[in-house]
TrEMBL record:
PANTHER family: GERANYLGERANYL PYROPHOSPHATE SYNTHASE, SHORT CHAIN ISOPRENYL DIPHOSPHATE SYNTHASE. Keywords: Magnesium, Metal-binding, Transferase. The keyword Transferase applies. This is Octaprenyl-diphosphate synthase. GO terms for molecular function: metal ion binding; prenyltransferase activity.
Length: 292
């Protein structure tokens, strides 16, 4: 998948560069924000927002600030997650706190969240509520993650509850917000939200699985969250647990595709298909260098 060539990707990338450019030249804040915002990544979430918006009839320009706000809150969550997980490497580079220290990293996260609120405020109540709820769920999910790790819990229901909140919530909000921005009705918005939920859940299962199998080479942290394989391994052999995890991911991807297929064929629909397959394919490749 050549996402770097997509106009959705290029637009969000340019918006991100412009945003960093506007921060006080030479300030430490600018350096920390640039460190995370210009460290690569596929911009999956904002691209999902822009594609969902296009499918519902909007132009990129109308949805761009909403897409940027999604990328900024995501970047903030990565900085904060790395603080909690004592992350060392992210996207092949040292984490923000390793380079700039814990206070500067924490404050850059606060700065990014605040900017994302400023950007989203122009979109009205429904979009604002969707966005705020996703942020709250991410924090709840991350708190569950910390708790699961402390209790060494490999409970199936708790695992799914945690990843749906910490990860799938922002994918779901991205797709739903894209639909809202285009003026879609509640039924359509719900379909996009569900699509994002399936994609985000599959994405996190693969992310955990890549760490479990040590297939990932651009990320490193002291604390590792439990994976779905760990959950299944309690009741079956390793190979069976891996096969069952794969099945679950394939099922989620196919359900996500089915939802998108409810909409008429278009380039945007094809791209949402592709991005869903891409974001979850690391599980099936030799080395996981996926950069979402
Ligand atoms: C990655 O988990 C973590 C997340 C997807 C969510 C992080 C959320 C927070 C820190 C709450 C902050 C909330 C807001 C609104 C900024 P992981 O450690 O399994 O993934 P990794 O392998 O990429 O580190
Ligand atoms: Mg982490």
């Amino acid at each position: 998948m050549d996402i770097e060539k997509w106009d959705e990707y290029r637009s969000i990338n340019k918006a991100l560069i412009d945003f960093v450019e506007e921060i006080d030249h030479g300030s430490k804040m600018k350096k920390v924000v640039a460190h995370i915002c210009q460290s690569g990544g596929k911009k999956t979430r904002p691209v999902v927002l822009l594609l969902s918006s296009r499918i519902c009839g909007s132009e990129i320009g109308n949805a761009l600030d909403a897409a940027l706000s999604i990328e900024l809150i995501h970047s903030a969550s990565l900085i904060h997650d790395d603080l909690l997980d004592r992350g060392i490497l992210r996207r092949g580079a040292k984490t923000a706190h390793e380079v700039y220290g814990i206070p500067a990293a924490m404050l850059a996260g606060d700065y990014l969240i605040s900017k994302s609120i400023e950007l989203i405020s122009a979109y009205g109540k429904e979009v604002g509520i969707e966005f705020g709820r996703a942020g709250m769920e991410m924090a709840e999910g991350e708190a569950m993650d910390v708790d699961l790790l402390e209790r060494n819990s490999n409970n199936l229901a708790e695992y799914f509850n945690c990843i749906e909140k910490k990860t799938a919530s922002l994918f779901a909000a991205s797709a739903a917000m894209g639909a809202y921005v285009a003026g879609a009705d509640e039924d359509t918005v719900s379909k996009f939200r569900l699509f994002g939920n399936k994609l985000g859940t599959a994405y996190q299962i693969v992310d955990d699985m890549l760490e479990y199998t040590s297939k990932v080479n651009n990320k490193e942290s002291i604390h590792m969250s439990p994976s779905l394989v760990d959950v299944y391994r309690q009741d079956m052999a390793d190979s069976k647990a891996i096969a069952k995890t794969r099945e679950i991911v394939e099922q989620l991807v196919s359900e996500a595709h089915e939802i998108i297929d409810l909409f008429p064929p278009s380039q945007s629909r094809n791209r949402l298909h592709e991005i869903t397959t891409y974001a979850t394919k690391g599980l099936f490749s030799e080395v996981g260098t996926r950069k979402c």
